[in-house]
Amino acid sequence: MQRHDPERDLLEMAVERGLMSPAQRDELLAERETTGLRVSPARLAVEKGLLTEEATRELETQVWLKRLPPELEGYRLVRLLGRGGMAVVFEAQDVSIGKVVAIKVLLPEFCASDTYLARFHREARIAAKLTHPNTVQVFRAGEVEGIHYLVMEYVEGETLSEVIRARGRIPEKEAVEIVRQVSGAVAEAASLGIVHRDIKPGNILMSKWGLPRLTDFGIAREFSDIPDPAIQMSLTMGVVGTPTYMSPEQARGVRSLDFRSDIYSLGATLYHAVTGAAPFFAETPQETMVRVVSETPPPPRTVIPELSEGTAAVICRMMAKEPSDRYPSFDALEADLEAARDGEATSISYEEALRLLRPSRKVSSFGVEETGKSNPWRIAAVASAVVLAGLFLLLMIRSCAAAL
Length: 404
Known about the structure:
Layout: H1 6-16, H2 22-35, H3 41-47, H4 53-67, E1 71-72, E2 75-83, E3 87-94, E4 100-106, H5 114-127, E5 138-144, E6 147-153, E7 157-159, H6 160-167, H7 172-191, E8 204-207, E9 212-214, H8 229-236, H9 248-251, H10 259-275, H11 285-294, H12 300-303, H13 309-318, H14 330-341, H15 350-356, E10 362-363, E11 369-370, H16 376-403
Antiparallel strand pairs: 1-2, 2-3, 3-4, 4-6, 5-6, 7-8, 8-9, 10-11
């Protein structure tokens, strides 16, 4: 029986996709055989400039996907629904009763850390306690032959991100009501001590009945105490959390986040829904994070002049740079969302709330002075520092791998 060779499979897939020639594949495999190098052919391909790091990671994931069994402990995998930074999601079927579910399967690099896995399963148990009607339910967590997964409710429909993309933007009252309902799900989580950390339009599923459902509870956590350097690299480069919707304190790397960070992300989501544009955008995640911390987003009424002052005021307060300036409770937030939806006065005027969008003039944890103005030199310096730190960590990982 021929032994399975995932490295050969990766190179074969690279050839199939036109990323390298058959001759280059054969040369890499021959170099491995003749030299006995511990460096994998994929790593040699990167070092020789035949493959990029990104292409290699994608090929590794695709090889892994092809090797997944068709069934996981009574759940038959039907089709791949999507892929995130830490996991892939399948539509699946419970073979015993025929129920359609969604299964989130952790990528293999995250299954290599015992610390991460312990936290993953602990958070899954907490997430399973969430029963709010606007939360995607988690049914169970499992493991089979080193494959770790979550079984969740399958929600037929589109993400809010897809709806915004298709419609351009969401009508004001509809968008406010969507966020009001989702805030109830976040409030329940907060009561159990859960901070979501990755609220965004892509994590809000719009069911075919029009009910918004928040997903991805239980895995978007802070993992800075995990010793595995490969996982640290992934997290450093922005896997956990999405910079466009990330609160300033999360972008600065603050570990003790609370519910106010999620309120900010909800506000950024509402901003995107009603204006059709994200509050912050840059060419790289690192530069986006710098802008979230140090710049003022375009005020919502300058983007959409017909937006009501009430809705604009709520967005600004939700997205206040300082956590202490945001809503102190979900009850207060819901009251203002209802008022904005119904065209009534909110607890704060638009003029007052507008000032809360501006960063205070102080030194941040990035080590730069925060002001409301865009400073391209500061952005370049901070982004360069982030990239250099990532490259240094990557070199350390390679050195450790070579020493094994």
